[in-house]
Each structure stands twice: as C-alpha cells, then as structure tokens.
Amino acid sequence: MRQEEQREILYQQMINAYGDLMGTVPDEATDPAIRFRVLADELAQGMEEVQEAENNALPQLAQGKTLDAHAAARGLERGQAARAVGILTFTAEKAVELPAGTVCRTQDGWAYETLEPASLIPEAPVTVQAQSVEAGPFGNALEGAVQVVAGRQDCQVTSSAFTGGCDQETDERLRRRVLESWANPSNGANRGYYLAIAQKRPQITHAQVQANPEGGVLLTVAGEAQLPESLLLELSQEVEALREPTCSVTVVQAPIETVSISLQYEGGKASAQEVEEGLAQAARRLVNGSGIGAKVPLSTLYACLMATGLAEGVLVVSPQGDLKAETGKVLRCGEITVGEVAE
To answer: Residues 266, 267, 271, 273: what is their CA dihedral angle, to the nearest 10 degrees?
Structure first.
C-alpha cells in the first residue's frame, strides 16, 4: 500500500474514533483535525520504514543494494554487463596495417572491435582478439557472422563465434543464486562446495553437481548464452586446486538446445517496434533463464508475455506445447519472430 493511501486510512480512523467519543466530527481546519493529519503522516512514514526493514532483512524480498549485501554475505556479487569476445580473421591482397580498435560488423549491423593491431600481407590470414563494441547478449554471434570491415575496402574479415556477452545481473537472477547458496551450504567437500565455486562467477547462471559415470564428480555449468572457453578453463583450474585429494572433478558446459519461437499479437499498446521488441525480449529472458534439464511450460510463457502489458492478446504460434530440455542440457532461444495478427 502506498504511503499516501495508508496516511489517509489512518487519518479517517482517527477522525471516526474522535467522532464516536465526542459526538461530533472535527472540521478540517480545527486543531484536532490538523493534529490527526500530522500524526497520520508520521505513522504512515514509520509503517513504511518498518515494512522496508522487514523486506530488506530477507533475501527473498530485498532489492538493489540491500540484495547486493545479502549476496556479499554468501561470497557472491552482482554480475556486471559484459561484452562478447571472439576472434576475427583478416585477409588482404596487399600489405595493410590495421590499428587496434578497428571496427567490423555483421550484416545486421552489430559492431565488434579488435583488441590488438594487425599487419596483413597478401594471402596470409591474420587472427586477432576482438570484442563487441557494446556489452550485452546481443553481441553473441555465430561463427562467420562478422563479414564487413567498417570503412575499408582493402581487406576482408571472417569470425569465430562470439560468446560471453550479457546484461547486468537482475535482482531476480542474483536472488536465485543467493537462495541456492543458502539451500546448498558448503562444508568444503560436499555438493554445495562445488556449486559455490561455480556460482561466484556471474556469467554462470546455473550449475549442477552429479556423480560422473567415469568416476569422480561432474560439475555442469550454463549461462544465458554460450560460455567462453576461457571461463571454463579458469573454473576447471580453480576446482582442481581446491578439490578433495581423492576426488576428480570434471567441468563441462551444458549442451544448448536451441528453440525457435513465433508469436502473434493484437491490440498493441505501443508502436509496432516497441511491442515486437518487448515481447521478444520477455520470451528470450524467460527461456534463457531456465536451468539445466528444466522445463518451460507453455502457460508460463503466455503469462510472461501478457505480463509485459504491451498487447491485449498474444498467440504463441510455436512451440505448441511445453518446452523441456533433455537431462544435462539447457534451453536457449534461437530465432524469435513477432508479428501482428492479420485482420
């Protein structure tokens, strides 16, 4: 309840109680009414502060910086937005010098920049490290997606897959990691121990510990998109250094099952572009946030889309049933198409 509403309710209760006791209701301009108004305002403010303190005391309800403090108590921190990283390969028919920061693009305009200079000679491919110009998941790209060197005609480019791009971690994602860390406390050797090591990395949104059929422990991890090999190597090295002496731990990335989604809407409450982008973003966030071996019910997808408030009605053309990842795999969005229902 908003503070203004609570204040008005308290004020009316005081006025009514005064009327019952004195047999008359005080006028708004009288001293008792003014005192009641001031008291109601102070009580409403105090009640709001008490409610906020109660919410902040629990990670289930805390938000923002208070949730960050709960995370820090569990050795976790909010993940910051990250750029996708990958490799660009250049070729040229004559000697060309490319400075660090050379921008290349995909056919649909997403930009990537080199992190080091490159000296090209005829018929000798040169590879350089690169990253997306902007942070976020839209910088993640398939192999070969980068095909244009911006502003240059004297060389050609192709690319590896770009991975690791993500938005800043939301309260809901951070809250899930905090609650998982409480549900699986680490004692230095159990399942929770290995989960805690993995969950310290904000790009890892889900982790699973199982017995490895080949012996030891299998630590399976997943992110909203494909995780960089460098991150998996770093995690493997840390686990190897901290594991129990008699236990081998294998770190693997959960294979991705790509799903395509087709949506139609009617009664858009914003511009067509805003509606289509908003619905696509909501569907992508839901599916890409699902865990290892998790299920995304069709009813949940509908609820998520309608909760955006962008359209009066939404139809999920495909899939036509619940989405379910195979054991050890994760669901992640591929192509999402959104269009208005034809009249």
So the answer is: -20
Q: Is residue 76 part of a domain?
A: no
Q: Is 145's pLDDT higher than 80?
A: yes
Q: Please give the residue range of the domain that contains residue 150.
A: 85-159
Q: How many Cα neighbours within 13 Å face the side chain of 196?
A: 20
Assess whether 97 and 134 both reside in one domain: yes
For residue 20, what are the contacts with CB-CB under 8 A and spacing of at least 6? none
Q: Contact at 8 Å (CB) between 325 and 222?
A: no
61-91 pLDDT, tens digit each? 888 999 999 988 877 888 888 899 999 999 9
DSSP symbol at 248: -
Q: How far apart are CA 269 and CA 281, in angstroms?
A: 16
Q: Residue type at 55?
A: N
Nearest 5°: the CA angle 129, 252, 79 is: 60
Question: Exposure pattern of 296-323 as b/e (b: 16+ CB <10 Å)?
Answer: beeeebeebbeebebbeebebeeeeeeb
- Compute CA distances 150 → 132, 261, 336, whole Å: 14, 32, 28
pLDDT tens, 23-68? 888 888 889 899 999 999 999 889 888 888 887 888 888 889 999 9
Sequence length of the chain is 343
Using DSSP bridges, classify how beta strands 118-120 and 96-98 pair: parallel, antiparallel or unpaired: antiparallel
177 belongs to a structural domain: no
The structural domain count of the chain equals 4
Q: Confirm whether 28 is domain-assigned.
A: yes
What's at 97, amino acid-wise?
E
Phi/psi of residue 34, each to 5°? Answer: -65, -40
Instruction: Tell me what the mean pLDDT of segment 238-258 comes to.
Output: 86
For residues 265 and 341, is the Cβ–Cβ distance under 8 A? yes
